[in-house]
## 1
Amino acid sequence: MTLTQIISTIISFAIGMGIGSCATMPYWRLPRGEISSGKWYGGKRSACVHCGVQLRTRDLFPIFNWLITRGRCFNCQAPVNPVYFFIELSCAVLAALVYLRFGISESAILVYGMCVCLVILAATDYSFRVFPNALMVVFVLFATNYRVLVDHHLINMLQQFVFTVLGLILFYNSYQKICGKSFPGLRYLQMLSLAALCLPLSAYAGFFLLFLALALFAHIFSRSGKSYYGTVLALSLVLHLFYPGMLWGWLK
């Protein structure tokens, strides 16, 4: 790795931290139906959820603030939700990895946009067990633009999406008839269908198999009662965005 690449990777990491700091607002506010624009465009400033004190500028960077305050509010000393730290760190690391994998390109921007959406979706699923519709729409915009940029065929993407949706609907209806109740993870089926927009068929097959394997692992070993399926789904999709044929090629 050259000196220029090292410096560019560090800059990408720093930019990712800034984006991650902004990403904590939709994580907390979208599930509550609040405006996610902060103090701009009619939104309210970020504040401690325990004592209500408005956060200072330096408090809006969870990675550094977490280390300085040891994960506590500077005013009331209440523990700060560690998900904030996870969001910013993930966005920063992914920014560096996207640069190393895709360089400075249109693909890099679109892949990173999807990655940020997936990080926030994993966080909202973990904390609130919901995928905000607004965030899913943003993911669709990034995904469709990326697929058209890579494949140059809109019709292939739409056909795969339709077949995926039909297959998941068939699974949903079969589950209802066999079990006599609705499938409890409808939001995961929705995200599985949206994943078909950004991955070709061979990559989607590998992504789906990896998701099933990791979801089964999370189900067996989870003892906290928290939902890790959103995190597993996001991780599986991010890996296949970086390396579309990584699992399917190995299986063949």
## 2
Amino acid sequence: MLLSKTPLIGLKADQFRHPLDLEATQSLKQLPGVDMLVRNLLGPLAEQVFYLQNIASSILVGEQQLPNLHKLLLEACQILDLEPPQLYIRQHPVPNAYTFAMRGKQPFIVIHTSLLELLNPEEIQAVIAHELGHLKCDHSVYLTPVNLIILAAAQIPTVGEWLAQSIQAQLLAWVRCAEFTCDRASLLVTQDPKVVMSLLMKLTGGSPSLAPQLNLDAFIAQARAYDDISKTELGELLKQAQTAPMTHPVPVLRAREIDRWATGKEYAALLESRGIQYNDKADKATSGGGWRNW
């Protein structure tokens, strides 16, 4: 259990970057021109279209507009030692959040209203911190083209499908690995692994009405069952086939990864180097009643 919440002054991305993220990034860099190829397919005009569409159809958060969300953003940026990007809220029925960092433009984060309705303030800050993790780790080199393609697929299905097929498998594999890193950024900001794991649980099968009934202990137990599938060759092949087209790892594995890092020496050492007192025994113990209601 963390006894204080202190800014991580001087925090470097490699201090919390997931090893799979580092490995995938190095592999991706060996493919010359991947980023340029995707950007040239979309073109500078496409980037500008998506940017203008966002500012025209979303609410820009600030001191005078949704100030509570603005405060969550500023606090998260202070903890991660990062300059605040713009934060937009967009009306949308599908819970989601994403980050853009386009050339010559200020980076911005977009959060859908349905996601805000599903989460409590601490979990919302975990979402913001996750997106900030992409900026902190400079994921935008490859992440922005992927986001552009996903949005293109949603708005222009025929064109979007063709563009999506042009993405290298290694690019999607990198995106999935980058998500593990950004979950760690969420933990560094919230400084409570249960907040991050409850967020993942709600994204998996929650709704505003079901959320109070969910049990975090039971959700973590799901991950163990999923891991057991890997013990057979067929099971491992099925898992690979399932995840290959995905931009995110399956939620139960993300929860397991954050649980392992939260109780590991690397995380404790990082906090203690900033003078943050940490007691992992409290975090390892789970209550019989599951995660707390908000």
## 3
Amino acid sequence: MKKFFAVMMFVLLSAFSAFGETLNVTIDGSKGKLSAVIQKPGLKQGEKCRMVMLLHGFTGSKNDKLLTTLADTLESCGAASIRFDFNGHGQSEGAFTDMTVLNEIEDARKVFEYVRDLRYVDGVSVAGHSQGGVVAGMLAGELGAEDIHSVVLLAPAAVLRDDALRGNVFGVAFDAGNPPESVKIFDGYSIGREYILTAQTLQIFPTAEKFTGPACLIHGTADRIVPYTYSEHYRRIYRNSELHLLPGADHGFTGFEKIAAKIAADFLAK
């Protein structure tokens, strides 16, 4: 009888391990607690897999369709992912007007430190969309290929520095030499003075090009927020990279989420 129960327990545990797992976790960030979701494939005891950090864009969240589609695709390929809300976004703590690219990089670094030490993680990669792409590129440049295995940038918004220097963000003009305390942009959102001043001095490409590992750029030719020429610039500075231009895709890859996710997942699975 004991042998029977032992066999049944083994069968049940084996069946359970064949299914993936989704976990809600909280991580200390630059401005308070970060709300995050870990999605991982079914793993046998002692088995490890790649972890991919998924970084959303400006005013986005961890539940953006592009990110959830990519998380599902990665799971089907045997990789885990963690997607999280940056400070001032979604369910994470902090005020949106206090958010800057630099404190988002700090958020991402804290998330990296969290997943790096998980027992089932065998290497960390990072994928970022829009402003999250800028953060991903700079994070990888700062940490280096020793810590970040590979990078995927989806419509990386390196234009944000140029916009801040021109004094025009999302069509809203301001004095670039003396920015106001806050600038109202759209849908009730306002960016703070510190966001603008930080953006004006960001070393986006010089920092990103320090990363020597594999990089993949994905951009839509119909992107009216960030011209695809910015991804072409990333392609030139990365020594080991590939560029995929999607004809007709907009900045959010609307209707192209599965295509973009497959390109990204296939690259990360190499």
